[in-house]
Structure formats: C-alpha cells, structure tokens
Amino acid sequence: MKHWRLVSYDIREPKRLRKVAKIMEGFGERIQYSVFRIYSTDRELEKLRWKLAKVTEKEDDVFYLTLCAKCASGAHTQEKKSAWPEAPKTLKIL
C-alpha cells in the first residue's frame, strides 16, 4: 500500500548534497529546498533509504515521516494550499 512521505535532509558537504538531491528527484517532488514529498510503498521507501545511505555520512541527517491520508490532505504552505491527492496520477513510460 502506498503512503505519502515527507523526507527532509541536512547534508554537510555540497557534493553529497547534490547527490542526495538527485536521488530524491527520482523518488518525489521537491516542496522546499531540502524537503521532498514522495508517494511510495514501504519497499520503495526502503530502496530510497538504501540509496541515500550509500552517499551520506554520519554527520548528515535525513528525516522520514509517513503521513496518514487525513494528515496529507491537510498539508499546506503559507501562500497556498498544497494539493496532496489521495493517489497522484501515474505515468507509464513505454
């Protein structure tokens, strides 16, 4: 079952920061500079955690938060309400 996840990070070194951002862009949508929202299964989340663990160091921080559907629907920014649909549209690459 897929859930919305909020992932934020604080990476101390610019080269690692770029690598983490590139990995995150493959999994979700950037909502702030170092905050992403992803819609994933538990298995996909573990894959993300594994990939990030390969490029981060002990001095870096990565925070994962799984949101229930009600919490995700109430998420908003200061300027506008963020649309966190129950299930985002999926694209098939042929």
Task: Provide a quick synopsis of the model.
The chain is an alpha+beta fold and 94 residues long. The chain contains three helices and four strands; from the N terminus they run βαββαβα.
CATH topology: Alpha-Beta Plaits
The assigned CATH architecture is 2-Layer Sandwich
Order of helices and strands: EHEEHEH
Strand order of the largest sheet: 2-3-1-4
Look at the structure and give the mean pLDDT.
87
Task: Estimate the global geometry from the Cα principal axes.
Answer: globular
CATH class: Alpha Beta
Calculate the terminal CA-CA distance, rounded to whole Å.
24 Å
Strand content: 25-35%
Helix/strand class: alpha+beta
Low-confidence regions: none
Can you describe this structure?
This protein has helices spanning 14-25, 42-55, 69-73, and strands at 3-10, 28-32, 35-40, 61-67. It is globular and about 35 Å long. A hairpin with a 2-residue loop joins β2 and β3 (35-40). The protein starts with a strand and ends in a 21-residue tail after the last helix. By secondary structure, it is an alpha+beta fold. The protein has one domain (3-71): Alpha-Beta Plaits (2-Layer Sandwich). Helix content is 33%, strand content 28%. It has a four-stranded antiparallel β-sheet with strand order 2-3-1-4. The longest helix is centred in the middle third of the chain and has 14 residues, at 42-55. It is an enzyme of class 3 (hydrolase). It comes from Leptospira weilii serovar Ranarum str. ICFT. Its cofactor is Mg(2+).
